[in-house]
Amino acid sequence: MAEIKIKNASVHFPVYNDSILSLRMAFLGLMGNKKVRPPLKPVKALKSINLHLKDGDRIGLIGLNGAGKSTLLRLMAGIYKPTSGFVERRGKVGTLFDLYLGMDEEAPGYENIFIAGTILGLSPDQISAATNEIIEFSELGEAIYRPLKTYSMGMRVRLAFSVATSIHSEIMLVDEIIGVGDIKFLKKAGERIERVVSDARVFVLASHAEFVLKDFCRTGVVMEEGNIIFTGPIDEAINFYNERNLPGGV
Fold first, then answer.
1. Sheet containing 84-90: which strands, arranged edge to edge?
2. Cβ atoms of 233 and 219 closer than 8 Å
3. Which residues contact 95 (CB under 8 A, 6 or more apart)?
4. Secondary structure of 69-118 in the HEC alphabet?
């Protein structure tokens, strides 16, 4: 069984309140013997979130930029810890957001498969077993032995996407589905995502694209200023969001 329980969870990020850092304070900080820093002012990214995801859930996170969608995904993944409340996870978690995390510009694509796989939690044996399939799917050919710094943006995305989607995860968290190359490869990527969604017991996607949300999600969660303001069938959630934010769209 796969499951995520979020109970009264908030996430606050401490930041310096630059508005009160006067020129005099800055000068004193540079000239004096002790450091002068402005007080911290927390940014409340998520506010008392309650959500229970379980087997079979296909959730779309909907909201304006800055609404808290990405922060909520990272809270679910365990990347962020709640400032208050708690999060419980049951099942292996896979993510599709920080695709290039940890990749080495000087290393060839082949070595970056092992770097990315390790960061994603795979063992050396698991990476070795998946390497040929990753190379074949990425369609990089002999370029897989060239340094990453020689790759175009499309080639980088294809490699990272191929590694990230080679993993079987009971819980899959996705922050947008991005273009990954030409039309032919984009079709392959779409089919791959469909497989990832069908394999996962719990799937959560944050996106601004209505057609993507409708294709992959059954339930919509609308967010605004760090709060969940609506939960319901995906079509109803999209309509709620559009009515609230016209003349824009998702």
1. 40-54, 3-16, 84-90
2. yes
3. 73, 77, 120, 164, 172, 173, 174, 175
4. HHHHHHHHHCCCCCCEEEEEEECCEEEECCCCCCCCCCCEHHHHHHHHHH
Confidence of residue 121 (pLDDT cuts 50, 70, 90): confident
Q: Is the pLDDT of residue 20 over 80?
A: no
pLDDT at 32 exceeding the cut of 80: no
CA neighbor of 61 nearest in space, from 224, 204, 179: 204
Percent of the chain with pLDDT over 70: 85
Q: Which residues of 72-99 are buried (b: 16+ CB within 10 A; e: fewer)?
A: bbbbbbeebebeebebebbbebbbbbeb
Token digits for 241? 């969001």
Residues of the chain with CATH 3.40.50.300: 3-91+207-245, 96-200
CATH fold for domain 96-200: Rossmann fold (3.40.50)
Q: pTM to 2 decimals?
A: 0.81
Residues 97, 175 contacting (CB under 8 angstroms) = yes
CATH fold for domain 3-91+207-245: Rossmann fold (3.40.50)
Q: Which residues contact 224 (CB under 8 A, 6 or more apart)?
A: 63, 64, 67, 244
Alpha-carbon distance of 52 to 46, in angstroms, equals 16
Question: pLDDT grade, residue 31 (50/70/90)?
Answer: low
Residues 6+ apart with CB under 8 A from 143: 109, 150, 151, 155
